[in-house]
Design brief:
about 375 residues, alpha/beta, Aminopeptidase, Alpha-Beta Plaits, 8-stranded mixed sheet, 6-stranded mixed sheet, 11 helices, 16 strands, about 35% helix, binds zinc ion, hydrolase, Amidohydrolase, Peptidase_M20
């Protein structure tokens, strides 16, 4: 295994740089999907395109009959400018691979090559290249396009690079890995009026202020202190003059939790506290939610163990940790609502060298490509023993 992966590294690093130069934001991954499909075709791997927008699935058959396993990489970049000066920096203004999805695709392409050359498994490996992870729920788009019916995997695995963990170290969580999240927008409304005559109108700015403090009490009082929950009001727009009571205040924010029932509780509290805040300040309120909250990423025990077994087979025995979850999200959780699976982190090295996720000086660390290729490949082999 070592030789095939080692030999492929210069080619894989070149691919990673090519992908980094051509970032495409969520649901616009046209160039990226052609690039990936061409690489799979060169390896002789059949590829099904258009599975949920620019999503695609490569299929590698093993040496005998057996079940299916899915390996997933995300494809999209972020809508931001890159501030790096190296040769492979983004060539596209307003788009940047600042989350390392260029590296994730490269590692899955490396695993595709290794698995198709060796075929030391029985059954089928489905290589799932997923668009629109950062926005628009690409995992759900692929599920809606019949992913699981067309490519019947028994379980699914993925990974994400993780800054400030030493390069190449592997983290596999027991249970929750990343939070589920929902978004809300509130619009408090009143007739508005003279700042000195508040009794003649409701006050949307006052209502919004009650909401901001009230919702933090929901996190502190309604949620079991042993559970994780966070609500952030990221935007509060209202009013325009010192001496005028505004007609409107608009708030937007996110609520997150590591369990679906906590998300449901937070969503209900957002609604109740918005209504109460509106009553306190004599306003109306319009409450909007972005569809359903995205589910949390929660590893199933058997699949977490498969990934750990795979990590223990890697050359050099990289350190293997049990992780502490983060309140950041990943729509991999949508797959886990239907299939057992696990999501690992691979250390990307210190952030003073490679930056942090979603920052303009971030770069995926090429030194971890080999570990990622080996971890994904060994995970497929362990799942299809
Ligand atoms: Zn991201
Ligand atoms: Zn990401």
């Amino acid at each position: 295994m070592t030789d095939i992966v080692e030999d492929a590294l210069p080619r894989l690093i070149a691919m990673r740089h090519d992908l980094h130069r051509h970032p495409e934001i969520s649901r616009e991954e046209a160039w990226t999907s052609v690039f990936v499909a061409e690489r799979l075709t060169e390896m002789g791997i059949p590829v099904h395109t258009g599975v949920g927008g620019y999503g695609m699935v490569g299929v590698v058959e093993g040496s005998g009959e057996g079940p299916g396993v899915a390996l997933r990489a995300d494809m999209d970049a972020l809508a931001m400018d890159e501030h790096n000066s190296f040769d492979h920096r983004s060539q596209i203004p307003g788009a940047m691979h600042a989350c390392g999805h260029d590296g994730h695709m490269t590692m899955l392409l490396g695993a595709a090559s290794y698995l198709s050359l060796t075929r030391r498994f029985r059954g089928t490996v489905y290589l799932v290249f997923q668009p629109a992870e950062e926005r628009y729920g690409g995992a759900q788009l692929m599920l809606d396009a019949g992913l699981l019916e067309r490519f019947p995997a028994r379980n699914i695995f993925g990974l994400h690079n993780w800054p400030d963990v030493p390069a190449g170290e592997v983290i596999v969580h027991d249970g929750p890995v990343m939070a589920g999240a929902g978004e809300f927008t509130l619009k408090f409304k009143a007739p508005g009026g003279h700042a000195a005559m508040p009794h003649m109108t409701g006050d949307p700015v006052l209502a919004g202020s009650h909401f901001v403090t009230g919702i933090q009490q929901a996190v502190g009082r309604a949620v079991n202190p042993l559970e994780a929950a966070v609500v952030t009001v990221g935007s509060f727009q209202g009013g325009f003059a010192q001496n005028v009571i505004s007609r409107e205040a608009t708030l937007a924010g996110t609520f997150r939790g590591l369990r679906s029932d906590i998300l449901a509780l937070l969503k209900a509290r957002v609604e109740e506290i918005a209504q109460s805040a509106a009553r306190i300040a004599s306003t109306e309120v319009e409450i909007g939610f972005d569809d359903l909250p995205s589910p949390p990423v929660v590893n199933t025990p058997a699949e977490a163990e498969i990934m750990r077994r795979a990590a223990r087979t890697l050359p050099g025995s990289p350190a293997l940790h049990i992780g502490v979850p983060t309140m950041a999200g990943d729509d991999f959780g949508a797959f886990l609502e239907h299939l057992p699976g696990a999501y690992a982190w691979i250390g990307n090295g210190p952030s003073d060298r490679n930056g942090r996720l979603h920052q303009p000086d971030y770069d995926f660390n090429d030194a971890i490509i080999g570990t990622g290729v080996r971890l994904l490949s060994a995970t497929a082999e362990q799942a299809l023993l």
